[in-house]
Amino acid sequence: MKMKNVTQSDKSKDYVHISFEIGLLLKGIDSLTEVIGGILLLFLNPGRLNRVISLLTQHELSEDPKDLIANFLTTFSHSFSINMQYFGVFYLVSHGIIKCVLILLLWQRKLWAYPLTILSLVLFIAYQIYRYTISHSVSLVFLTVFDVIMIALTFMEYRKIRNVLQSN
Asked: Tell me: the pLDDT tens digits for 77-91?
């Protein structure tokens, strides 16, 4: 019975692959959530949003008229427009579908999908940075950091698969 001599390099490659697979799973969940959220947003017009927000914040604002979250939600619901709704639907559904397709291609180990995924993530990051300059949303920072990590993992996985294919 032969024992394979496992080097530190082999272990780190396994960790990279496992991290890549976990990242794909998380991106897959995120992309499905975006598509579902975009579809649900079709049914949330400005009038409905105002009614829901009023219902949810009515009790809290009667107790504390200066409640930050309730006031933010109320202000947001009053500024929510049909254009914002359509943009949100388009952005969430298209962004989610693009990521779903790329993830499926990566799980199938399509070599050309790796550079395409990296390019797509770079474009998403550029847009997220632009949106951050407008909204200063902390969630955009976390999403951008996660996307940068996914770029690095995708690049390392791509090099590994390309090297295996070239050696065969």
From this structure: 888 788 888 888 998
Q: Identify whether 136 is part of a domain.
A: yes
pLDDT tens-digit profile of 22-74? 999 999 999 999 999 999 989 888 888 888 889 989 888 888 888 888 888 88
pTM of the model: 0.72
Which residue type occupies 1?
A: M
Query: How many distinct structural domains can be found in the chain?
Result: 1
Quickly count: other Cβ atoms within 10 Å of residue 23's Cβ: 20
**What are the residues whose beta carbons fall under 8 Å from the beta carbon of 110, sequence distance 6 or more?**
none
Q: Which residue, 144, 91, 146, 147, is CA-closest to 118? A: 147
Q: Which domain holds residue 82?
A: 10-167
The answer to whether position 59 is within a domain reads yes
| Residue found by looking up tokens 């032969």 in the block | 2
DSSP 129-158: HHHHHHH--HHHHHHHHHHHHHHHHHHHHH
